Structure formats: C-alpha cells, structure tokens
Amino acid sequence: MNILCLASYEKGHEFLREAKRQGCGVLLLTSLSLQGKADWPLESIDEIFYMPDEDHAWNRADTIKAVSYLARTRAIDRIVALDDFDVEMAAALREHLRLPGMGETTVRHFRDKLAMRMKARENGLNVPDFVHVLNHGALARFMERTPAPWVLKPRSMAGAIGIKKIHRAEELWPALELLGDMQSFYLLEQFVPGDIFHVDSIVSEKQVVFAIASGYGRPPMEVSHGGGIFTTSILERESDDALRLVAENERAMAALGMVRGVSHTEFIKARADGRIHFLETSARVGGAHIVDLVEAATGLNLWAEWAKVEVAGEDGGYRPPVPNRDYAALLISLARQQHPDTSAYNDAEIVWRMVQDHHAGLLLKSPSAARIRELLSAYEPRFTKDFYAYEPPRDKPSH
Q1: Would you tell me the crossing angle of helices 104-111 and 87-97 to the nearest 10 degrees?
Q2: Residues 258, 207: Cα–Cα separation, whole Å
Q3: For residue 33, is pLDDT > 80?
Q4: 174 is a domain residue
Q5: Considering 57, 78, 99, which residue would you say is the last residue of a domain?
Q6: Which of these three, 157, 190, 223, is where a domain ends?
Q7: Residues 243 and 361 in one domain
Q8: Which residues pair with 187 in a beta bridge?
Q9: pLDDT tens for residues 219-278?
Q10: 135-142: which pairs have CB atoms within 8 A and are 24 or more residues apart?
C-alpha cells in the first residue's frame, strides 16, 4: 500500500514512521516554504514533494494537477491529511482520484464549524444556539431571542484562532463591517458558561474503537484571548462526566459520518443545568501536545494508531492495543525567558519537559488521578510566578 501524506505544516512524524513500519510506501507532499527547515523522519519517507505555498496554503487546482501527475508513475492507495488545514484538500484529491475515505461533503462536518453544528443539531445533539453570519435580519432576530454574550467564530480556522467575543448587539455590526465580503465565512454562537472537555478517539469503519475523555483547566479560548496557564488532564474513567462525554462523542461521530482515523472533539458542560453541548470536532489528533497526554495515560500513540487504521482500511480489521489505565495532565505556558528552566520541578511524576523558546511545559503521569490533581493545583500558581507571559491571540495560524 502506498500512502500519500499531506502536510502544509510540520506534523505527524509518528504517523510516517508507523506507516513505514507497516510496510507501506510513504510519499509526503509538503509546503515549499518548509524545504530545508522541517526535520522530517527521512528514514520513513520514500519521496518528498514540495508544493508552492502562500503562508502554507496551496492552490487547489494546482495541487490536484500535481498529485494527478504523480499518480501517472506512482500507485496511490490512500491520501491522509496530517494537519487540520489539509483535510479539505485530501478530500478533494480522494474524490478526484476516486480513492477510499471521506469525501468533500463529509469532511465539511470536520472542518466547517457551521456545517458540523447544523449536522449535530439535526441528529439530536445539544448545541449552543447559533446563526450563520449571512442575513442581517436573521442576525438581529438571533440577538433578540438569545441572551448575550455571543461568540463570533470563523467557520474553518483551527482552535481559538480568529474568535471574537461580542457583548452587545452594537459591537457586532462594526465587527462585521471589518470582515466585509468575508462575513459569510463566520457564524455567531451563544456563549454558554461552563467547563470545556475534549474526547480523543480512534474510528475504524465508522465504529469508535477507542475514546478517552479529558477536561481543560480553563477554556482554551479564555487562555488564548485572556492569558493564563493551559492545562488539561484525563478524567477518572468511571466518573459520570467521562461516561457521558464518551457516549456523546460516539453519537457525534455517527452523526457527522466519521469513516476512519482519529478525532479530537470538544464539549461544554453548561454551568446552568449540567447539560453537555457539542462544540466542535476534527478529523485529526488534538493539538497542544494532547497526543502526548493520551499516550502517557494509555500507552497509545494516536498518530501511530491512525496509520494502522488506514492500513487496515475497509476490512475493519483494526483493533487498538489494550490501553493502560494511568492518568496524565499537561501544563503549558508562554514564558518570559527564552529558555525557561523547569529543573526546580522535580517530582517523579514528570515524564516530559517542553523544549521550545519562550515556552514552559510539563507532562505528568501517575496511576492516581488524585495525585495528578494535587500536582496540578500546586504547579499552576508556581508556573504563573516563575514563567508566565502573555501574547495577544493571532488572527492566523502560526507555524
């Protein structure tokens, strides 16, 4: 089997390695702007091809022609998008080459925040009230019936990029004027106060075969826009929240049509009534080192398991390894220092330290969820004192 991997950003090293371990031919199509800069695992890649890009974005028509040209002399059996921004391109290529996997209509449910909300609501999932930023009369009626604040969100950006909180109707119209002809690429959503969770799962032939629930310390949007320490930790597996979240994730994957691969899905538990609302999902591993969090707690590397799922393909023969039942937590902060020193944090539960300019981060692992909570509550104020720095959120993704 030959797998063509798309990566406009440097991602997915372990996917590439596992695909090669599984005996696949591995082709990588990546951005020309990464040539000579990315540290790809070359021993696991048979050929690398570079696509001209503008800020890591590829021209759709040119990419279809380029991959079709490659297919003249190379058999391509699978196309996999390693980064969120490549998911739609991979779907377009699958449809053009008539390869298995999700096509463009289904993929919209994993990239377009409007499409995923509409599909989830149609299938009976709880979703915060929302409206497409299209008809201004409909927007006005939405704001009349739905209490403020609201959240103005781009439909296809990743994470908290480009999101703006709107407190009064008078704030919305100037914000829309600034968007100009890009207004229809946004939605307006009710802001629901509550706790944010994520479920990271593996899907094989439309069946969720592995899922684990985690909870953010503070909502990622709040950290991105207001600053603070990013934390997330694995929930106690038999807790009411974990069981409900895993069940809701299964409903979401069925409703949105996930075929095979991995998914990172976010939910909010409303403070007012405890109901769980679907927020958004993706056909990729979670960012911010969440793949490392899951591996620490379970022993499963989601990149590697994803490669196995793709190789197993339509026969549905993939089965995940029996997961470990440890607990883990991530703690990450922007740092004032270029090379922050975390050596004063020396508990035995630390299994990884972040090495990145102006960032401090730790990954904790323990068989005890209580011990993880204890360490997080001690470390978070120390991180704030020792390292914390704030940078305003970006409107565009950064490499």
Answers
A1: 170
A2: 8
A3: yes
A4: yes
A5: 99
A6: 190
A7: yes
A8: 132, 153
A9: 888 887 778 999 999 999 999 999 999 999 999 999 999 999 999 999 999 999 999 999
A10: 139/172, 139/188, 140/169, 142/188
Cα–Cα distance, 186 to 169 (Å, whole number):
16
Q: Tell me which residue range forms the domain holding 145.
A: 129-190
Task: Supply the DSSP string of 57-91, one letter for each residue.
Answer: B--HHHHHHHHHHHTTTS---EEEESSGGGHHHHH
pLDDT digits (tens, 9 = 90+) for 337-372: 999 999 999 999 999 999 999 999 999 999 999 999
The answer to whether the CB of 223 falls within 8 A of the CB of 206 is no
Q: What is the CATH number of the domain that holds 27?
A: 3.40.50.20
* 381, containing H or E segment: helix 369-386
**CA–CA gap between residue 191 and residue 194 (Å, rounded):** 9
User: Tens digits of per-residue pLDDT, 171-228?
Assistant: 999 999 999 999 999 999 999 999 999 999 999 999 999 999 999 998 888 887 778 9
**What pairs with residue 326 in β-bridges?**
none
| 255 shares a domain with 164 | no
User: Hey, what are 243's tokens?
Assistant: 């069981």
276 assigned to some structural domain: yes
Phi, psi of 45, rounded to the nearest 5 degrees: -120, 130
Q: What is the mean pLDDT of residues 272-294?
A: 96
DSSP letter, residue 26? E
Count of C-beta atoms within a 10 Å radius of residue 334: 18
